[in-house]
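A reminder from the course coordinator: this example appears on the midterm review sheet, so study it carefully.

Given structure:
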């Protein structure tokens, strides 16, 4: 598999090149040129296959020129000591029960930072370590986060040889626990608290990547979903989830994806393009509903983000929309045929958290709850086609959003050990203006 820019199809890169470049030279995003047909391989996977072993099987088929079977073993086993989990939930809504469809949550929060970003970040760290092991060079990871990316990247790359990490996050727009996770490590992890929004952070990162002086002096690459190496492994858990469904559930399976920057949804669409027999996707957003509006109206109108309870999805100009548009060749009708957009309010999110705690005794974080509510609405409101099974992605552990969960339920969810460990550690972050020049000064002074 080779890659080209979303903005210039004459620019080509191998997987190794795309991983270290992060952003294409013209400012576009790398996306695959080839579309391998892996349907038979996908259907051969059994529920007994571990996530690490499934990933190991996929890598040589996707990247035979860059990753040998032996390297695939090293990368997958090092990257994935944790796994997704698939849990069925039982909605109490009568209209939903009449459909006879099941809803399952694909829990993606069992990694070191308790969020789905752990899969992509851990894989990227393992891949870079594999590719750099024979090189006497140094790389600087530059990434923007609206919450979970930063903590996942920080944990995945902490103390890695030959790599430093610079994380930009919007001041006072991430949860207290998310901030603790990405600002308390120190060492080769450098947190920059930006006076602005996530969109400002993302703009600064993109502008830094195309700055000629920085390109000459520092080997910059990214670890958020701008980087194709972070995005590709996210496709793997769609494949794993499908393999863990019954044959009846696989028929007409739909995935619901809580979406902000749209990397997670793009990864699912890639899995479908490679042969995963999925019927449709739901792009579930909060009131930052730029993509659902595009799917309904055919006009893409990015705008400033609005702060919500599902803060990791507060994105007004999602960068991965560029990749989605490229996959569908800019054809709005074709994109809407495969993706339905549903947006959910904060009140609905709180109500969903409350309902599932009261009826099933389970805690949901606001992002997962938003996806569950969008899944319910898809079935309640009669969208087509009606699936036998709707898999909604559980993107973060409820313990990462204590205040919101307590507001909805009156109870505090239990904290997993990896979250509890950071609570009393001191914050280590540098406050900067939302200026690319200020970011550039920091990078040149430190690296």
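Designed residues:
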């Amino acid at each position: 598999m080779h890659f080209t820019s979303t903005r210039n199809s004459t620019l080509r890169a191998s997987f190794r090149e795309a991983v270290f470049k992060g952003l294409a030279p013209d400012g576009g995003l790398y996306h695959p040129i080839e579309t391998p047909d892996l349907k038979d391989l996908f259907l051969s996977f059994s529920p007994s296959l571990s996530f690490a072993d499934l990933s190991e099987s996929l890598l040589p088929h996707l990247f035979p020129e860059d990753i040998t079977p032996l390297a695939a073993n090293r990368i997958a086993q090092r990257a994935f000591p944790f796994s997704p989990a698939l849990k069925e939930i039982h909605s109490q809504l009568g209209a939903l029960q009449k459909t006879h469809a099941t809803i399952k949550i694909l829990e993606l929060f069992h990694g070191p930072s308790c969020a789905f970003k752990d899969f992509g970040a851990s894989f990227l760290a393992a891949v870079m370590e594999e590719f750099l092991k024979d090189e006497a060079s140094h790389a600087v990871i530059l990434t923007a986060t609206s919450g979970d990316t930063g903590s996942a990247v920080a944990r995945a790359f902490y103390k890695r040889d030959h790599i430093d990490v610079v994380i930009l996050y919007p001041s006072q727009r991430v949860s207290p626990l998310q901030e603790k996770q990405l600002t308390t490590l120190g060492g080769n992890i450098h947190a920059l608290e930006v006076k602005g929004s996530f969109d400002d952070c993302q703009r600064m990162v993109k502008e830094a990547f195309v700055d000629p002086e920085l390109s000459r002096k520092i080997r910059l690459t990214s670890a958020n979903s701008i980087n194709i190496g972070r995005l590709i492994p996210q496709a793997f858990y769609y494949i794993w989830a499908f393999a863990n469904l019954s044959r009846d559930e696989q028929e007409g399976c739909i995935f619901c994806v809580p979406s902000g920057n749209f990397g997670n949804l793009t990864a699912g669409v890639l899995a479908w393009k490679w042969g995963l027999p999925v019927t449709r996707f739901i792009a579930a957003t909060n009131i930052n509903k730029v993509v659902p509006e595009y799917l309904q109206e055919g006009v893409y109108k990015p705008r400033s983000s609005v702060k919500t309870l599902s803060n990791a999805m507060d994105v007004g100009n999602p960068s991965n929309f560029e990749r989605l548009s490229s996959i569908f060749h800019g054809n709005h009708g074709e994109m809407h045929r495969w993706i339905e957009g549903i947006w959910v309010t904060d009140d609905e999110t709180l109500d969903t958290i409350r309902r599932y705690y009261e009826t099933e005794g389970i805690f949901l974080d606001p992002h997962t709850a938003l996806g569950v509510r969008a899944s319910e609405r898809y079935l309640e409101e009669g969208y087509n086609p009606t699936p036998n099974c709707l898999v909604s992605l559980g993107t973060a552990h409820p313990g990462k959003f204590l205040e919101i969960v307590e507001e909805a339920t009156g109870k505090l969810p239990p904290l997993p050990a990896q979250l509890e460990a950071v609570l009393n550690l001191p914050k280590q972050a540098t406050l900067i203006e939302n200026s690319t020049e200020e970011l550039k000064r920091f990078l040149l002074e430190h690296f």
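The first strand starts at residue 3 and ends at 5. Residues 116-226+422-446 form a domain with the Rossmann fold fold (CATH 3.40.50.1100).
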